[in-house]
Amino acid sequence: MFAFAPRLLAPALLMLVSPAFGSAQPSWPISPSRLQLSTPYGDLQVKSSEYIYEARLQIDNTDVDPEIHGILNITYAFNMPTSQAALVSINSGNNGCPITYRWVVLKKTGYDISPEFGSCNEQIKVTAKGRHLTLQTPSTQAADKIDEYVYDGKTVKHRLRNLKKEFK
What is the CA radius of gyration of the chain? Predict the structure, then answer.
């Protein structure tokens, strides 16, 4: 009676764990992760804590201001003409929005930190062009759109873009 069960179970399991057949979704790169970044302008680091959501972001062993804490990762870093920029992912334990981002720009005169931004998603594509740092992530508003966040060193601007144009 159960001789056919393995033959039926294997295809069913394969369908459950495989991506949707014929899916046109783009493949998002896996974000790198580091806890320390040495720059000519100082050392950016994640200071661990016994409590998982209490790690703190520091520059040269001093907490940054405004304070950034949670499960932190330095995901991307870019050499700029007169600075070093790093993207920090922040998981604060909020199930409704598990992950947000901030840019930290270290320079000779100190550092700047962007406002918190993101679409609550770990899937990101990050680029730097000139002074503009760009993060793209799947949109929470529409499956055929992506959210794009551009930081110019002062403000983060958000716009919705067509998925097909960005991932050809």
Answer: 20
